Amino acid sequence: MVGITFAEHVHYTDTFPGGNKYCIKVSKQIHRITMLSFEQARQIILENIASAGIEQISLADAAGRVLAEDIVAPWDMPMWDNSAMDGYAVRSNDCGKIPCKLTMTGYIPAGALADGVEVKPGCAVKIMTGAPLPSGADAVAPIEETEENPGEQVTINEPVKANQHIRFRGEDVLAGERITATGTIIRPPEVSMLASFGRVLVSVYSRPIVAILSTGDELIEVGRTPGAGEIVNSNTLTLAAAVREAGAIPRIIGIARDNHDSHLNKLREGLKADVLVTSAGVSAGDLDLVRIVLEELGVKQMFWKVNIKPGKPIAFGLKDNKPVFSLPGNPVSSMITFEEFVRPALLRMMGQRQVIRPTFKAILRDDVKNKAGDRTTFLRIRLERKDKLFYVSTSGKQQSGLLKTMVNATAIAVIPPGRGFMAAGEEVDVHFFGDYIELLEEPR
Ligand code: AMP
Ligand code: MG
């Protein structure tokens, strides 16, 4: 990676009263870095991401959040030896010959104590699941394998082995054992364990607030029918959905128009959040003001342009420690760059250990011709499984302006640079797109 500082002509665009645009050309020194590879760019981002902080929340609200503490068992689980079945606590030695008759001398329902209750030779104590095992007993005969007779007698009809149907104290977890570590996503099993240990509050990583700003004079808000030259601002809601799916909190800033003041106001507002994500206005067009105004606002550009397709013009900067992502405007490019760069950053801020989606190999069904063969290319694909192997078929045309192939895609194939042509039958790296895993089993 090489840093170059050079003079660049910057166009400040603004609007005269009456609506006509004017342009001022300013020469300024801009620090730029030669085009990075996909992996280098993601590494720079992840190296510059700090934790979003820690908060205590109710266990009732903790599902999906990331633990910010190690959880150590405060007591043994189970806390005492207890019955795993409804049945009879017995001495296994008494049941050498089947059927055997025993005298019933007590009853311990769930929730009762076994203090002072003893199973004496030749005797049995009726016991319910979860109830503490009385002294003297070393096995439980399930009720289904017994018969209760008149006169407090019970017949055991099946062989009884020592220790059968007993849950022993500490068998699951011992006091002092570390059950789960910081960085773990809290799923229902973690909730269950924490609840079993009486935890009401739990420390988790905070969810960053992510400002989302669209830019462009052509944009109109969702709900209006576009007139000539107008484009519906779909990126704002798309990125908000992606932010939410990653577990962070979107804050919609709206649309910055293609003039300096509008960019200044909206970007300034966006920088109040924990993370700022913009879309469009980051290429080399006359009205692409995002990077220029971000620099004015004190955002240090870490890189601009990555050797990928789609999404090459992406920029990443930092205002103090606050990450600022300038994504390209094409809906497909903004979604893919969010997926590959912003999502891992948000997961890292939220303390997750695995911030990059697991990648696995799949086999190309068809030849792939890639005009941008010198770049890392993200193909929108569908995954199929046949005879235990995964197959890739593209979800349609791959131009970055085409949204339908994104909707039809269930996964992304990552083609490394230098592969302008890949033949059917070759293996590629793939990862699922979004949190919903869909796979066509045994396709036609
Ligand atoms: P730009 O990066 O500004 O050159 O925009 C590239 C393309 O993305 C243009 O066709 C824009 O109209 C389109 N675009 C930009 N912003 C949005 C948005 N918020 N929603 C949908 N399309 C957009
Ligand atoms: Mg634009």
Content-based structural category: alpha/beta
Q: Could you say which small molecules are bound to this protein? A: adenosine monophosphate, magnesium ion
Number of helices: 7
Rg measurement, Å: 32 Å
Q: Your description of this structure?
A:
This protein has 444 residues and is an alpha/beta fold. 16% of the residues lie in helices and 35% in strands. It is built from 7 helices and 31 strands. The strands form 9 sheets. Strands 9-6-8-7-11-10 form a 6-stranded mixed β-sheet, with no helix packed on it. α3 packs parallel to α6. The chain is elongated, with a radius of gyration of 32 Å. The relative contact order is 0.12. The N terminus is likely disordered. Magnesium ion (MG) binds next to loops.
What's a quick, concise take on this entry?
With 444 residues, this protein is of the alpha/beta class. Helices cover 16% and strands 35% of the residues.
What are the SSEs and their pairings?
Elements: E1 3-15, E2 21-33, H1 38-47, E3 54-58, E4 71-72, E5 82-83, E6 87-90, E7 100-108, E8 123-127, E9 139-142, E10 146-149, E11 153-156, E12 166-167, E13 178-180, H2 188-196, E14 201-205, E15 209-215, E16 219-220, E17 231-232, H3 235-246, E18 249-256, H4 260-270, E19 275-279, H5 290-296, E20 300-304, E21 308-309, E22 315-319, E23 322-327, H6 331-349, E24 360-364, E25 368-369, E26 376-386, E27 389-394, H7 404-407, E28 411-415, E29 421-422, E30 427-432, E31 440-441
Helix pairs in contact: 1-6, 3-6
Adenosine monophosphate binds at residues 214, 216, 218-219, 231, 233-236, 279-281, 283, 285, 328-331.
